[in-house]
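Standup notes, structure subgroup. Blocker cleared on the 2-deoxy-2-amino glucitol-6-phosphate input:
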Amino acid sequence: MCGIIGYVGPRPAVQIIMDGLRRMEYRGYDSAGVAVVSQGQLVVSKKAGKLTNLAAELGAHPLPDSHQGVGHTRWATHGGPTDVNAHPHCSADGRVAVVHNGIIENFTVLRRDLEADGVVFQSQTDSETVAHLLGRALASGLDLMTAMRQVCQLLEGAFTLVAVDAQAPGRIVAARRDSPLVVGVGQGENFLASDVASFIEHTRDAIELGQDQVVEITPDQVRVLTFDGREAPTKPYRIDWDLSAAEKAGYDWFMRKEIYEQPQAAADTLLGRIDPDGRLRLDEMRIDRARLRSVDKIVIVACGTAYHAGLIAKYAIEHWTRIPCEVEIASEFRYRDPIVNPSTLVVTISQSGETADTLMAIRHAREQHAPVVAICNTNGATIPRESDAVIYTHAGPEIGVASTKGFTTQIIACYLLGLYLAQERGLKFGDEVAELVRQLAEVPDQMRRVLAGLDQVAELARGQADTRSVLFIGRHVGYPVALEGALKLKEISYLHAEGFAAGELKHGPIALVEPGLPIFAVVPPQGRDSLHDKVISNVQEVRARGAWTIVLAEEGDLEAGRWADCLIELPVVPTLFQPLVAIIPLQFFACELAASKGYDVDQPRNLAKSVTVE
Ligand code: AGP
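Run returned:
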C-alpha cells in the first residue's frame, strides 16, 4: 500500500510533500519520489530505498521552488524496488507525472498497445502505463481533469491516481477506485492524500471521495466529478484523530487494522491472476511447464505462521494435483538431510522475505538443484530474489509483529499455485480452475461478514483476562487453524495456548482438560463425510469433562450449537476455504485479550517482525 500526498498552495511544495511522506513511513515502503511543476516545467526526483535516500538526492540536486507537487512512497508490487520503478512516472513528452496506489489489472494489454504505438517504457511498473495514457490524452487537447476521466475508464483493477500537468499550473487532479484517497481542505491551500496522517498537521478539514470519482484541487477550490463527467456531491468531515491514530486509520493497533484489511488484501492478491480466456496467469512463475510437469514431490518450507499456511496449503495442493506434498519447519529442514532433487518443487512461504531459517532452506534446496518458488509479501526481498519464481501476495505492509493478513494471503497464494500446477499438468480443465478461482473471489465478502460480527469475540476476550491456558482443536484444514489460533494467543497475550488435531485428544492431551478450561473447536462444514461429526464428538468429550467450549461452525449448524458454550458462526464456504474465515475470530480474540491485559499488541515482548538470524 503506497503513500501518496499532493499539495497546491502558497507554501514550498517540496517541504510539505517530504514532511507528509515522512508521516506515512510507518506504512512500510521501498522507494520514494517527488514531482513538482515550476515555470511550466515538470521536475522529478526519485530514489529506491528510504526517504533519507531521496532527501540526500534532493540535497545534491534540489528541485526548483514550486507551490504544486505530488509525492509517493512505494510498496513494490509490479517491478522491484529500484530508482526507475519508483514513482512518480512521467509521460514520454515529460508533460505529466502521476503517482499510483493499487494494481492496474489490465496493464499488460494497455502497455502492449502503447508499445505498438511506439511508446518506450522506462520501468516494469503497471503505473507507468497510466502516465503514457494521460500524456496521450493531454496531447490530444484534453485538460487534465478530462484526460484523467477518460483514462480511468480504460483501467481495470484498484487504483488511486494523483497527477500534475506542467501546462496546468496551480492544479492537481486525482482519481480513485477501491483504493484510499482523501482531500485535505486548508486555508488557501489544499491537499490530496492516501492517508490523513500526511496532512493532519496542516488541516483537520477533509473531504471523503466516493468510488469512481475524479477530483481537481487548486489552492481555493475542490471539484469532484464521476468518471463519466457528472458533478458529484462532496462529503466534508472533520478529522478528530490524533496523529498516532491517523497512522492506524483510527484503529488503536496496527494488528487490529490489519485484521480488518484482510478482505482487501485477499482481493488484491487475487487481482490480475485470471486471463480474459479464464486461464490462471502467474506472471512471476518463471518455471516452464515441462519442468512443472516433471515435479513428483512438493516440499513447503516456512516458519511460524507461514508454516501454518503451508500446512493448510498441503490439503488443497494434494487434493488438486495429486502430487505428494510435505510441509517442513525451515529450521529443521536442512538438518534432516532431506530427500530433494531436480524433480522436487520447493515452495517457501515468507511475509518478510528475509527470514534466515527459510533463506537457508532455499539455499540448501538449490544446492540439490530443486526448483524453488517463493510465496512472499515483500517485493524484491532476499527470498524471492534467491528463488526461481515468486508469487507475491498483495497484502501491503504488515506492521504488527503478529501476522494476520500475511497469513490469509499466503493461503490464497498457495491455492493459486496449486490450481496453476493442476492447470499446467492437465489435471484440471480451465473451467474447473476458473470456477475454483471464482469461489475464491467470493472469500473477501465472506471475510467481511465475519469481521462485521466480532463484537461477540471482543466480549469473549474481555471475559478471559484471568485465563491461564487455552486449547484449540480442529481436523483436516481446521487443525492448522487450531495451531495458528494458539500461536496468535501465545505471541501477544503471553498465555499458554496449544493447538491439537482433535483426533489426538484421546492420545494424551485430553488429560489437560479440567472444568472451566477454554477450548476453541473449529468444526468442519456439515456434509463433509464423517469429519464434521467426529469433531462434534470431540467437543462433547471435552465438554463432558468440564471444558468451556467455544465452537466455530458454519451458520445453521444446529448440532454444533448444541455443544457450544459460546458459538461463533461462520459463513458457509467450501471446506478448503474455511481457514480463510475461521482464523479471523481467533486472530481477533488474541488481539482483544492482549489489549485488555494492557500489552503492546503490535510489538510483543521478545519478538521481531522479521527473524533475520538463525
Ligand atoms: C507470526 O505471527 C510470527 N510473527 C512469526 O511466526 C512469523 O510468521 C515467522 O517468523 C515467519 O516470518 P516470515 O513470514 O516473514 O518469514
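Discussed briefly. The CA atoms of residues 461 and 589 lie 6 Å apart.
Next: hand off to the docking folks.
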